[in-house]
Every structure is written in C-alpha cells, then in structure tokens.
Amino acid sequence: MTTAVALLALTAVSPWQAAAQPAPGSPSPTAPGNRLGELTLPEGWQVTGSGAGRQLVWTAPERIPAGDARVEFHAGDRLLGRPLARPDGRSFALPLGDVRLEEGTRLRVTAGGRRLDAAGHADATAERPLAPAAVPPAPLPANPVDPGVPGRYRTVSGEYALDSVRLPGLPQPVEMRATVVGPAGAPGRRPVALFLHGRHDTCYTPGTEDVRITWPCPAGTRPIPSEQGYLRAQRLLASQGYVTVSVAANGVNGQDENLEDAGAQARSSLVRLHLARWADWSAHRASAPAAVRKTAPADLSRVLLVGHSRGGEGVNRAALDSLNPPPAAQDGYRGPVRWKIRGNVLIGPTVFGQNPAPDVPSTTLLPGCDGDVSDLQGQIYVDGTRGVSKGDALHSAAYFVGANHNFFNSEWTPGQAKAPAIDDFSSDDGVDPVCSPGTATRLTATQQQAAGATYIAASARLFVGGDDAVRPLLDGTGRRAPSAGPARVLTHAVGARRTPAFLPGSSVTVSGGGRLCAQIDPDAARACLSPEEGWSPHFAYWETSREPGRDAVAMKWTGTGSPVVVRSARPVSLAGAESLALRVIAPPNSTGTELDVAVTDSSGRRASLGRTRVDGLPGSPRTAAYWGREVRVPLAAAARAGVDLKRIGALELTPRGGAGRAWLMDAWGWRPGTPAVNPAPLTRVDMGRLTVTEGDSGVRTYRVPVTVSGQGSGQVRLFVPVPGTDEVTSRTVTVRPGRHDIDVPVEVRGNTRYGDDVRHDAFVKAVRGTVVGAHRGGVTARNDDAMPTVRLTPVADDVTEGSALSWKVTLSAPADVEIGGEILLEPVTDGPELSTADVDRAWLEQWFGEVPDPARPLSGVTEGGTRLWLSVPSGETSTLVTVPTARDGVAEPAESLRARLFTYDEKWEPVPGPEFAGRVRDAA
C-alpha cells in the first residue's frame, strides 16, 4: 500500500474539531508531541502542528475566564509570545516559528504577571511563604472636601443604540450602544464623563453558566451588558452636574485577540466616534436620541474619560489621539476633534504599549487584590510620564488595599450581574491573609464600588472642575475621603510642576549602602527585585527581559546603616519648592522604616532635612505590594543652613533602626497647587508592519514602516530583537516629522524550501518630547513554498509477535522546518484487535505514561482515540513509525490494528487520509 497526501498541518492546530484533538494529558511527557527541540515538556503542554502551523499548546485544568491581561508564554526569562485562546477557554496555542528550547528550560504561563499554570502557582507559594498582614494603621486624616457626597441634581437615565461601525483590523462591525445618566434641570451646558469597560466575556446564555467571548453573539445568547456596570459612579457624577455616558465595547472585546496592540486603537476609535456623535447632538439637539435629550446639554470642552482595564488603555489612547492624531490608515475616526479631554481615570488598566499620554492629567486606581491585571502594570501611567513632556499634568496612582479587579463593575460582580460573574482574586489553595473574602483588609463589592465612585468623582472635580481642595486626596498628601468608607486608599503622584531632583538613571551615581538597580533585568546582581522576592507595580514587565532606561536605587542595611548618597551629574534646582517629596518602597507588611534625609549643594554645604518613616503595604505572595509611598520633608532647614537650593548636588538617605531594605523611586521638589495644563507640541511615533513573500532566490532588503508626525523633535528608545536569539538591541533615536530617523533594515532571503514565516520585530518607547501610538511593528516574511507531500509505505505490516510493525513516512522534498503528523488508531471491526498486552511495555510507557491494567484494545488507550505522532526533522526526508510487539506465549489467532492518517485543508477542516492496517501473527 502506498499513499501520497499533502500534509497541511498537524491535528490540534485545527481549531477545533474534537476528532482531531488529543485528550488532555496525552500523549505522555516523553511522547514526540510533548517535546520541543531538546526540551521534554511538562504536564499540560504539548507541541501540535507542523511547519508553519507548529504550535506550543498549554491546557489548563479548567476554563480560564476571559480577562484583560494578556496570557503569555515564557521560557526562563524570555517572552516566547502571546498565545491565542481556543474556544474551550482552557487551551492556549502559540505559533512556534523556529523556536528551539534546551533541556532544563522552565516554561511558564502568566497573565498580568500572575502564574496560571498549576505547577507555577505552587512554586510561587513555596518561594514566598504567606506572611501575616500588617496591622492596619490609624486612618488618614479626613479631607475637608469629600467628593463622594451626592450633589443637588436629580438624575435621569436611558440608553441609545446607533448603527454599528467598521473599525480597522476587526472583521465584524462593532456596536454603538451606550447607557446615559445625567442631571435633570442643571443650568447651562454640563461637563461630560465617558466610561469604557474592559475586556470581559461578551455573551451569555440566560439561566445557565454558559459565557463566551466572541462577536457577534450566537443565536440563543445575549450580550453581557458590561456598559451598565458603572451606574453607581454615573449617578454620583450626574447628581453633581455631569452628563455621563458608558459605552459598550463587546464588539472590540470579541475580536481583539489577533490585534498587535490588543485593541487599544480600536477602543480609542470607538470612544472618539461616540464623542463625535455627542458633538453633533450638542450642535443639533433635536437630532439626538431621547436618552440624550432628556438630560442637560453637554459641554464637550470639558470631558473626563474613565476606562477600566483594557478600557483604561483605550481611553488613554483616545486622549493621546485627540491631541496627536494617529495615522489615518489605522484609525476608525477621521473627523475633526470637537472636544477637549481634561483628564483620565484608569481603573486597574492594562498598558501593553507603556505609552501614557503625558499632557492629560490622570488618576490610576490600582486594586491591591487584582486577580486579572495582577502585576498592576497601570502604575506605568504615572512612572512612564516622567521627563517626557513639560510635567504640568498631575499623574496620580491610588492604591486600593483589598480591592479586586472585577467588582468596580457591577456587571462583573456575583450577586449583582445579569450574567454569570466571578471574584477574579483566587486563593483556592488556601486563605490569603490580605485578599481572601472575610479578611480584615478585603473590601466587599459595595465598599469597593463606593470607594471607586468617590475617587472618580475626586478626579472629575480636580481635572474638570479645577477644585484644588480635592487634590490632597490624589497627590500623595495623605488624606482620605469619608465617602470611601472603610477603604484604605493610598496615593502618590508625579507632575503638577514638581521639580525633578533625583531620578535614578544614567545621570546619577549611588554610593554608600545602596546601588543603582535595574527595574527590568534577569541578572539578580542588577535587578531591583527578583521574582522570588515579590512583585512591584513599578517594575512591570514590558516587551523585553532587559530594559535600559528604567532604574531605581536599592538600599539594604543590617543596623543603623551607612548613608546612601545619590549624586546627580549636574546640580539640580529645588528653588521655589516647599518640600522634597520622595517615593520610597518598603517591603510589604513591614513597619517603621526610618530614613534621615539630607541634601548637599554643589559647594559642599550640607543640611539635614529631617527623618521620615515609611511602612509597607499589606501584602502576600499573590499581590503586587512593593509600591512607593510618598513622603515629604520640608526644605526650610536647608534654606536656614544657607544651602544653595538652586544648585543641589546630592541626596543623602541614612537608614535608622534594625536591618531593613527600601528602594528609592525618585525625589522631587514639591509645592502645593494644581497648575493649568497646556499640552506641549510633541512628536508622535507609530510603528507599522510590512508583510512580504520571501521569494525563490536572492536577498531583498525591506524596512520596518514608521510614521513620525506632530511638531518639533524628540527622542524614543528603539528596541530590535535579533531573530533566533534572546538578544534585543536598543538605542536612543532623535526623531523629527518628515524624516526617516528610525531606520530598521530587514534582509529577507528567498528559497524554494518550505519553512516558517519569519517575524522581524521592532518596538519603541517615548523618552523625551514624544508620544507613541502603535509601539510595535516590523517585517513579516511569509513562506511562499508548498509543504512537501507525504508518502506512507509499509516496511513491515505483517509480522510475528515479538517483531515491530513499521511504516516509512517520506517527504517529497526536505523542508526548513520540522514536518509532523499523526496516525489515529481506530477500532478493528473484522477480527481480534491488537491490545496493550500485545505490545512492548516500555513503548506504552514512553507514549502514554502508563501500561493500562487491565489490558485494553490499542485503539482505546486514550479518550477520543489513540494517536501516534510522527515527525520528520528539518532538512530530512523520512522517518519511521513503529509499534513494537511482545511475545506473550499464549496461543491465539492473528491480531491486527487499523489506522488512518489525518490531514487538514487551508481552512483547518479535517481531511481524513488513507486507512491502512497491520497484522501480528502468533509466534507459535
């Protein structure tokens, strides 16, 4: 028997025919499908597919709820990539390309820094044992003005639904729906607050636990009304005179998985499309929907954007796009900007691009018990603005002790939501001392929603209303809002014309009992904090395991320590500042870290400013609690001592008391007040992606497409991974509109052998005078050669027991990648079937991890059918598939096996190949 077939891809790359998927847990860890190069894959992992369709697949024991953080595969310290979820919600598949891993490499699955693989979770707990939560301190002093008190206006509400819209990169139209809550009878035009929810399941089946993330919703299901989840905050703002609108974004959530920016640009387009409609209705009120007409008229010159999770990244991009228009080809809104965004509130946000809008004031709410965006990467909306623009805009981080991710949205909250919902923080393997429900620090859903609404209202009152009386709630002064109830909310900030004094980096040196440390670096000698020690929101991972330009000062002492001296390359000015504000991280659950603070001017005159105390946050191994507390020391002593505040050369920090550790994020000259924000003319950079065919011969040079727009000039840091290695090069580039300053040439070599598509990536981050829209781009060279055909011929298909059945698989030509496939063993219908008692025990152990007892037909070893994986290595043209049989000494008739080769077409529909058989005769 001879058969030739086109082997398009290995089974499980087919999304998602059950007949072609191996059962969870099989084949065994040592079977060919569970190896990647030299690496034996751990339980739950397997390699599927062949050639360009080869994928690394991880399967969880149960469904992973749809969330906002991206699922990522890591090998050691290297990010392998971001896999796509399969419809079962348990399996995640990553195209492998030419990835090869060595034995001993540690595979990990993470989302927002949180380990998802079960083994990893156990490892993390072992590395960092649970610590008792610190005793809650006395409440902060109450702020005289409480923004959480309802206003005097009666509120009205309604909904509107407009025609769906097409957005670039999304195959299906996106809904234009919103929930409106506004004041009735408020005079004049009223400021606007627009809410955008995050990424959540999009559809549910009423009366069941069935939820899914897809778009449009299938028949029999309903859209999950995530846009209705902020009604408490909307009603509070509406009572205070704001017109509020909460936008539905299920159409983006159900289609953003393949987008390079995870949907940030699409969400920005959606937000601005709604604002454009409101601008139309403001000019022509009679044309507005009824829900809009029954509330007060809107003033589009005073807009606050509120975004939750990926919605936070979406509104950040909308604010950026409103000031610095994106390239038309990637934007879903191309009209004029007829609104002014005065501020952003970002709730547990993602920041995959790490590209905050520097000239739009912001408050980032960081939920201390976030079980989705667990690394609290939204901290970068504060830290990432430092030095980029003029520094007028206040950027605040508010750490909510005991808050989770989902409960800020009532439609994501069990007991409140219409669809099934969960508490995203999980402590299934034990009680977490900080975040398990019922602990002293964990907030209930209603407490969390009240506190969230209060801090949204505080941001509106400061950014839109200009009321400086609420600033102490947001800028690190240390005040609380009584309306937030028992919630412990801690804040720090940058901007608002703080004077940059000591920002750890290449322009400072550190001596004494400290060192300049790298926020992102796999080298423990350079890193500020190892993963085994804990998580810091300040040190959130980006695109590369080593990232220049992100530093802090690490301090460690065993007693009353020697001074840590941070010296600037050039004198800095603190003239006009009232205090020196420091952001200092103390270890979680620690108390009483004391530092004596002093400054020295360029002439050597020194002044002691006083002693400050920093306590750590309540934390556990599951929380990102290494977070900077803002402390301030007055500068009056320096003035009295005759120190030249215009020429400060060094900052001195002397630890007091017993052994301890701390980290200095930065130090600023601080004075009260909230300055007006006038956006600077910034240069905008957007990376693009070019897709080309490799061709049959020769070398062609392409360039990564880059769009530079805006005004003036600025600097970005350019990162370029070296294909096939772990190396990433970086350099700082000065960019100007109309020039080609970012030049990334890519050589593509043509050939006539089947191989992988090859991605050449590049990504950028703003340094100074720039903003970044699309941070990732590159050149993808598509394989344009056909996969070799596969010929299967018998070598020994009629043998006596004790010999091996074997077949030869031959390719029509060698390929540049491994070519794989599978043979499915099917039940024998005409006579006795070969059983597990008739084959070699070591072979069974190798393939299936066990020798079944009692014996069973060979076709029934695993659920769904027994599969024999085959692989032809790169550059070779054949391999053998063998089934070694055993002599059992029992007289019996001939036994046989029946098998079929499976292939798949271009649409991943299963194409059954030929059936073939093997016979084993009794040795007697």
* Unreliable segments of 5+ consecutive residues: 1-32, 119-130
Mean pLDDT: 89
Helical stretch tally: 10
The end-to-end span amounts to: 27 Å
Shape assignment: globular
Number of strand elements:
52
Percent helix range:
10-25%
**Which structural class best describes the helix and strand composition?**
mainly beta
Tell me the strand order in the biggest sheet.
12-13-18-14-19-20-21-22-23
CA gyration radius, whole angstroms: 30 Å
Largest sheet: 9 strands, mixed
Strand fraction: 35-45%
Structural commentary:
The chain is mostly beta strands and 924 residues long. It is 11% helix and 35% strand. The chain is built from ten helices and 52 strands. Helix 2 (231-239) packs across helix 8 and helix 4 (264-283) crosses helix 6 (310-323). The longest helix is centred in the first third of the chain and has 20 residues, at 264-283. Residues 1-32 and 119-130 have low confidence and may be disordered.
Keywords for this entry:
924 residues, mainly beta, 9-stranded mixed β-sheet, 6-stranded antiparallel β-sheet, 10 helices, 11% helix
Short overview:
By secondary structure, the chain is mainly beta. It is built from ten helices and 52 strands. The strands form twelve sheets. Strands 12-13-18-14-19-20-21-22-23 form a nine-stranded mixed beta sheet, with helices on both faces.
